[in-house]
Amino acid sequence: MTSTTTPQGGTPATSANPSLSSWSATWLVAEREVTSQIRSKSFVISNLITIALIIGGIVIANLVGGGGTSAAKVAVVDGVPASATASAVEDETIEIVAVDDRAAGEALLRGDEVDAVLVPSDSPVGYTVIGLTSPPDGVVNALAVTPPVELLDPNAVSDGLRYLVAYGFGLVFMMSALGSGAMIMQNTITEKQSRIVEILLAAVPARALMAGKIIGNSIIGVGSAVVMAAAVVLGLAVTGQAQLLALLTAPMVWFVVFFLLGFVLVASIFAAGAAMVSRQEDSGAVMTPAMMLVMLPFMGVAFFGTNLTVMQVLSYVPFSAPVAMPARMFFGEALWWEPVLSLGILAATTGLVVMLAARIYTGSLLRMGNRVKLSEALGR
Q1: pLDDT, position 352
Q2: What mean pLDDT is predicted for residues 320-337?
Q3: Three-state secondary structure readout of the chain
Q4: Domains, in order of start, for the chain
Q5: Which residue has the higher pLDDT, 41 or 85?
Q6: How far apart are the C-alpha atoms of 262 and 321, rounded to whole Å?
Q7: pTM above 0.90, yes or no
Q8: Which residue, 304, 30, 287, 58, is CA-closest to 177?
Q9: With contact defined as beta carbons under 8 Å apart, do 10 and 368 qualify?
Q10: Of the ranges 4-8, 307-311, 368-372, which is most confident?
C-alpha cells in the first residue's frame, strides 16, 4: 500500500513498491528507455543517415585528397635508361608498358591506351617524353629528379588534421549528449505534465527512476558512439588508410571510456533540470544552461584545437575532457599518466554531480505548477 502527503507548493514523493529492489527498479526503467528509443523510426533513420554521412565523407575526402588516383600508363621504347623510370615505378606513380619502337608507342597514345610515350634521345637525360595534344605534366612531374629532403620535425602534425580530429571527437560527443539529454528532459516533463510520474513513483523510487533514465540513455548514447566509430573504421578500411586507422585505435578506446562518464555527467544535469519544470514551454529556462555546458567545451576544442596549451587545460576540465584528452592522445602529446588523472577528475566530478542531481530530482519531481526554485529542490 502506498502513502502520500501534500506539502505547501506541491506533492511529495510517493512510497514505491517495496517488493521491487532498487536495482530491479532501475534496470526496469533503463530497459523501458532503451526499447522505446530503439523502436522509434526517427532514431533508426537518423542513425542510418549519420553512418552514411560518415562513410561517404571519408570516401569523398580520400578521393578529393588524391587517394583514389591511379598510376599513369607510360609506353617506354626500348633504349630508354632504366634509371629514368625506376623511382616513379617504385612510388607507383606510373605504370610501364614496354613497346618495341616509337610507332608502336604513338599508336597506343593515339588510342588513349597510355598517357605518354618515352623514347630514347640525345637529350641530357637520355630520353624524350611525347604527349598527344598537351604536355603530360603528371608524367613529367613523376619522372622529375628531385633533391633529397630532410625534415627538422618529421612528427609535426598539420593544423588541418589537428582541427579535423578534435572536431570529429567533439561532434560525436555533442550530438550524442545533446540528443539523449533532450530526450531525457522531454520524457520527464511529459510524464510530469500528464501526471504519469505519480503512477511510476508508486512502483519505483524517484532515485531509481532517475538512475534508470540515465543508464538507459547512456546505453543508447554509447551504442551510437560505437556505431559511429565502427563507421569511421569501415570508411578508413575501404579507402585503404590503414596507417590512420592504426593511430585511431587506442584513442577511440579511451574516447569510449571518457564518453561514458561524460555522458552520465551531462545526463544527470538534464534529468535534474527537467524535474524542476512541469510544462514543455518552461523547459528552455533549464535546458539552455545544460546545453551550454555541452556546447561551450565543444566550441573551445573546435576553435582552439591547434593551441597545445589550451588543449592541455581543456583535457582536465570535466566537460571538455571526453573530447580534448582523446584528441591529444591521437597525436601522442599526452603522457601516460595524463589520461588516468583526467579520468579520475572526471569520475569524481560525475559522482558529485549525480548525487546533487538526485537530490534535485527527488525534491522536484512531484512539484507541479511553476518552475521549482533550486533552493526549494535542494531543501528537505
Answers
A1: 95
A2: 87
A3: CCCCCCCCCCCCCCCCCCCCCHHHHHHHHHHHHHHHHHCCHHHHHHHHHHHHHHHHHHHHHHHHCCCCCCCEEEEEECCCCCHHHHHHHHCCCEEEEEECCHHHHHHHHHCCCCCEEEEECCCCCCEEEECCCCCCHHHHHHHCCCCCCCCCCCCCCCHHHHHHHHHHHHHHHHHHHHHHHHHHHHHHHHHHHCCHHHHHHCCCCHHHHHHHHHHHHHHHHHHHHHHHHHHHHHHHHHCCCHHHHHHHHHHHHHHHHHHHHHHHHHHHHHHHHHHCCCCHHHCHHHHHHHHHHHHHHHHHHHHCCCCHHHHHHHCCCCCCHHHHHHHHHHCCCCCCHHHHHHHHHHHHHHHHHHHHHHHHHHHHCCCCCCCCCHHHHHCC
A4: 22-64+157-378 (no CATH), 72-143 (3.40.190.10)
A5: 41
A6: 8
A7: no
A8: 287
A9: yes
A10: 307-311
The amino acid present at 269, given as its one-letter code, is I
Q: Cell numbers of 378, please? A: 535542494
